Amino acid sequence: MLEYGLYLVTGRELLPEGVSYLESLEESVRDGHVSVVQIREKHASYDEFLQIAKASLAICDKVRRGLTQYNAKMIINDSVEVAEALPERVGLHLGQDDDKLVDARRRLGPNRVIGISVHNAEQARIALDSEADYAGVGPCWGTQSKAGITKDDVLMLDGARETVAALARTQAEAPPGARLRIPCVLIGGINLRTAMRTLIGASSDMNAPDGFAVISAIVARRDPGRAAAELYAALEAYRAVCAQRTSSIATAPLSKTHAPPPPFSSAAELVDAASKLLAAHHVVYNRETHTEDDSKVTVPRPLVQTITSHVSSYFSANVALAFSASPIMSHEAEEAEALSRATSALVLNIGTINAEARKGMATAGPAANARGTPVVLDPVGVGATPFRYESTNEILNQTQVTLIKGNASEISTLVGSKEVQAQGVDSVGSLSNPAHLAAQLARQEGSLVLLTGEVDYLTNGELVIESRCGTPLLGRVTATGCSLGVVVAAGLASAKHVYGIELGTADVQRITPPRTHRALLIGALMGVLSFTIAAERAERTPGVRGPGSFLPALLDEIAALDPGALPEHLDRVKVMDQDYWSVEAILAENQRLPCMFAVDVPGLGYLEESGEADIHKNTRIELAYWMAHMLAIYEIVTIQQPRAFGSRVRAALDASTTSVQLHNLLPYWYALAVRLARLLDSDTLHAMLAKTYVGRISRIYELAILLSRASAETGARAADAALTHDMQTFLQGLDESEQVLLAAGQAATRTMQEYLAGSD
């Protein structure tokens, strides 16, 4: 099977002055990081193209020191004639031309590797049924190497994800004998800065890219070998993320530790750590004596550079001062590099983005990355216009941000969800699962994510913190959201100092992203709680009658906030780890499926724990759901039906659907059944699932009504006593999905009872 990982497309016109094409190519492939080389000669004659191709093939086939091959598969771009004149081991890549693909396959035979470019999901679906061996998906971003590309042609993450997903299908969707997926590589504007986020952003539950193609990221370098090694490291980091995507994040190594990272087992420990960090950071203002108490402060006052709108600059600067930070509101690109030597954090806010601000952000962001300085991005109204969306993606490609702060609409836009729409810079609608969406964006961008609203969600992609502090008044005045970003940035700077966090340079952060530094959550949480608790107190201040009098009171309350205020609001902070908020993560983490390998796979012997290096065909083993699912799509394993859905369980359900305790079989029995039924295309499993649901749902709602009515009349304990033994046994056996339905039924019954009581 061909390895499509790092795919180099040549371009002699992009070579640095004085650099030889063949020398550059050999340096690019000599260490084995490049797996495919596509020879691209748009303007060469047939004879010149063939001569270049033969010389290139000699390098790709070269044996280094008589021991190992350079290990690069060669592909010819667009010329069937040149490919036909070369050995069969040389492949061909074509653009969007179905007739040319059919002709090429006829002329080159069945054994040649032939790839095809796809630019949207429809073309991808056609490619899946074609004779192509792989697909190039793009352009993901704007690129200088291909003329005629417009903004409308660029896929960005949404389009890339949709197109890659269309290159795979389930067994139920595939015609008899048809393949389930076609390998693919991403192309277009991909470099060391964009590689990681593009690979992750183009991945979905349905499919994921096998690698990515680059041109100038290697060809235009004077050290192409090093460039290839750096890009390969990004590819390996992406593969590690895919392999470990259901595992908890390990704390990134620190070069120095001022304090050990706090535990993350409970909301109480998180809030306590945030309170202690606030004490180390904040100079408390005494409103009675007009004095400041800095007796507990151990953190240097952070200098926060903010590039934001002129509308919010004034208030954001004053909030920074009230929160014991020093603001500098500079948009100037000319001084960004110099400022980065002194700043402790950077805030990029696109509220009123213009050419000056974009230029400043393009300089300040990378400068902050180079010094390991936390960067907060506030993509205000990113879904409102294409200009804002493109500007935000430009920032994300230029800068590895530490935290993204946004409302439901903004987070939805960045993650590619259409669930919430933008109306200007405001959200219209609500999210069905905001915690999951925020965590998805965190994994996509490698950053912390703060989703703000009536309930705030803070996550590193694995652990989600829910906070219900704040007041609606925050949404009735301008600049409060922008100033929250400044407070959070100051919190990140203080956490970085207290816990000795080293974010590393931009290249390091792309591979070991900020979200892996879990202690940063403490800094962000400190900022969120401080700001929202102060807002609540400001609302209750005598003399505050509305938005106009609220803002001055908010400044006063931030300045006077005592660290002890945070633990007082513990009851409104909840930790939602992946076992709580992500059914898919639970299934991947805890549910294992019996599988049999259909082929020999080198290097996976450790899965069997047999001591052998490789795993062999017909080996039976239990694998986590996420791994089994992906290997089944690649036709590497076949999945056997688990015991929880076997003949004995089926017979028991046939006899009485309500007699089986599903929770004892699997806590998420329905969730796994749905996925398996789709994956295995099992009519039997579909039928069992439908019959079980229909047979049990009416009983669940009967008990919901009984419990709700009995509780209203006699109290919860008496309601439990009203249940028969069979009823109690049934309730104990509800799987997690059924428990949600039971709670919904009880809530609906209570609402109806209250309505009827009111109508009397």
TrEMBL record:
Residue ranges occupied by any DNA replication complex GINS protein PSF3 N-terminal domain in the UniProt entry: 581-633
- A Pfam match: HK
Q: Which residues form the Thiamine phosphate synthase/TenI domain?
A: 6-218
UniProt GO MF annotations: ATP binding; hydroxyethylthiazole kinase activity; magnesium ion binding; thiamine-phosphate diphosphorylase activity
Superkingdom, natural source: Eukaryota
Pathway assigned in UniProt: Cofactor biosynthesis; thiamine diphosphate biosynthesis; thiamine phosphate from 4-amino-2-methyl-5-diphosphomethylpyrimidine and 4-methyl-5-(2-phosphoethyl)-thiazole: step 1/1; Cofactor biosynthesis; thiamine diphosphate biosynthesis; 4-methyl-5-(2-phosphoethyl)-thiazole from 5-(2-hydroxyethyl)-4-methylthiazole: step 1/1
Protein name per its UniProtKB record: Hydroxyethylthiazole kinase
Organism of derivation: Malassezia obtusa
